[in-house]
């Protein structure tokens, strides 16, 4: 059992990870400003786990508030999800992204150092890979300048954490490079609840299916892929949550900073996702083809051999499971947590 501080723990991936942490017997302290989530997710997590966690409302940019959490709780390790993630918005208001994602992460590192806590799992993204790499992407491939400011913040924080671990051997840091998280806990009680119009494919598909949006725009059908639409590596959020537990175990007995891909290793096209969603759930998803979205690549999927070999992690869920679980959540919660 360890006492884990989870920044951004009320959000989509954070709430699923809190549930798995509680199931595994850990104590969980969530620190979240609720800017893109609500406490209801944590109320449901505690009901599902039949176990309490501690929730502290606060902002990672607030050093005093963070220091206080470390003083009040004897933290063993931190999983750091807190941050902003809307790609389009990051182009409009880059400074806000630099502030939350980069400055906020630096504040967290400072509070950890002050408190003598040196074990950290960081939410990174496959977006840090250079676009010239050919999938499957492995961790030894070069990173590159991401096409958007959101991705840039992930790359910068990764680099800072690498330098920090090089400079001070007390740090033990996991950089988890997520591919495309989708799905929801099988209960349908927690799931992805984006504010406003979704940017990502999966919530858009489920909102069309539930009648909140008219039709899906498929961005580009002239890529060099199986059917012309973009190919991505969709990973069930519960598999992703479990990767954090595996990374945590690994880091609690290791030093340095290391990156792991978290994906299934399988690529699926947008049309395959839409068609499989319709088959598995028996609901139609109206769509049209639209022009390519700026910044998109044709194909991105993981080589996940390192995570399997070193973390003892293994994804359990198929694309069908992911799409059934996404729909189960959306159907039970047509307006999200509200
Ligand atoms: P999310 O928005 O659901 O969760 C992020 C949480 O952080 C929210 O609860 C939000 O209220 C909180 N938060 C934001 N700024 C904060 C601040 N300054 N202080 C305290 N709390 C703050 O997003 P998610 O999909 O669960 O993503 C979690 C992490 O994983 C993020 O860092 C994201 O960039 C990263 N990530 C997500 C994806 C994805 O597709 N969802 C892919 C790769 C990486
Ligand atoms: C996007 C971001 C990435 C971020 C990730 C998680 C871009 C360029 N990349 O990844 O930085 O880490 O989200 O937040 O924005 N699609 C449609 N119609 C839609 C939505 C998406 O056809 O309405 C297509 C896309 O063109 C892509 C696939 O679906 O081929 C997946 O898109 P998305 O869910 O946005 O994820 P990524 O683009 O992989």
Automatic annotation (TrEMBL):
<dbReference type="InterPro" id="IPR036291">
    <property type="entry name" value="NAD(P)-bd_dom_sf"/>
</dbReference>
<dbReference type="InterPro" id="IPR001509">
    <property type="entry name" value="Epimerase_deHydtase"/>
</dbReference>
<keyword id="KW-0520">NAD</keyword>
<keyword id="KW-0413">Isomerase</keyword>
<feature type="domain" description="NAD-dependent epimerase/dehydratase">
    <location>
        <begin position="4"/>
        <end position="263"/>
    </location>
</feature>
<dbReference type="GO" id="GO:0003978">
    <property type="term" value="F:UDP-glucose 4-epimerase activity"/>
</dbReference>
<dbReference type="Pfam" id="PF01370">
    <property type="entry name" value="Epimerase"/>
</dbReference>
<keyword id="KW-0299">Galactose metabolism</keyword>
<comment type="similarity">
    <text>Belongs to the NAD(P)-dependent epimerase/dehydratase family.</text>
</comment>
<keyword id="KW-0119">Carbohydrate metabolism</keyword>
<comment type="pathway">
    <text>Carbohydrate metabolism; galactose metabolism.</text>
</comment>
<protein>
    <recommendedName>
        <fullName>UDP-glucose 4-epimerase</fullName>
        <ecNumber>5.1.3.2</ecNumber>
    </recommendedName>
</protein>
<comment type="subunit">
    <text>Homodimer.</text>
</comment>
<dbReference type="InterPro" id="IPR005886">
    <property type="entry name" value="UDP_G4E"/>
</dbReference>
């Amino acid at each position: 059992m360890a006492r884990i501080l989870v920044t951004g723990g009320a959000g989509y991936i954070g709430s699923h990870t809190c549930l798995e942490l509680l199931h595994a017997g850990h104590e969980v302290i969530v620190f979240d400003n609720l800017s893109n989530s609500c406490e209801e997710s944590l109320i449901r997590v505690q009901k599902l786990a039949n176990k309490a966690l501690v929730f502290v409302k606060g902002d990672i940019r607030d050093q005093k508030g963070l220091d206080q959490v470390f003083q009040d709780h004897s933290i063993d390790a931190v999983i750091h999800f807190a941050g902003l993630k809307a790609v389009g918005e990051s182009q409009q208001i880059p400074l806000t992204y630099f502030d939350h994602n980069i400055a906020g992460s630096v504040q967290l590192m400072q509070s950890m150092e002050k408190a003598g806590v040196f074990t950290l799992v960081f939410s990174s993204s496959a977006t840090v890979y250079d676009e010239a790499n050919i999938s499957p992407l492995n961790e030894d491939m070069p990173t590159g300048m991401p096409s958007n400011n959101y991705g840039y913040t992930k790359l910068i924080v990764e680099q800072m954490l690498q330098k920090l671990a090089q400079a001070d051997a007390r740090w033990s840091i996991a950089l988890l490079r997520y591919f495309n998280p989708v799905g929801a806990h099988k209960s349908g009680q927690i799931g992805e609840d984006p504010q406003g119009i979704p940017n990502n494919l999966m919530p858009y598909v489920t909102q069309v299916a539930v009648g909140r949006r008219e039709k899906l725009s498929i961005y580009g059908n002239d890529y060099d892929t199986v059917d012309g639409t973009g190919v991505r590596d969709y990973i069930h959020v519960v598999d992703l949550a479990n990767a954090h537990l595996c990374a945590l175990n690994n880091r609690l007995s290791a030093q340095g900073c290391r990156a792991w891909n978290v994906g299934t290793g399988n690529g699926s096209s947008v049309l395959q996702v839409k068609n499989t969603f319709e088959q598995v759930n028996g609901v139609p998803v109206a769509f049209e083809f639209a022009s390519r979205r700026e910044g998109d690549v044709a194909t991105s999927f993981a080589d996940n051999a390192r995570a399997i070999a070193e973390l003892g992690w293994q994804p359990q869920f198929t694309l069908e499971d992911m799409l059934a679980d996404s729909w189960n959540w959306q159907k039970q919660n047509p307006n999200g947590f509200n």
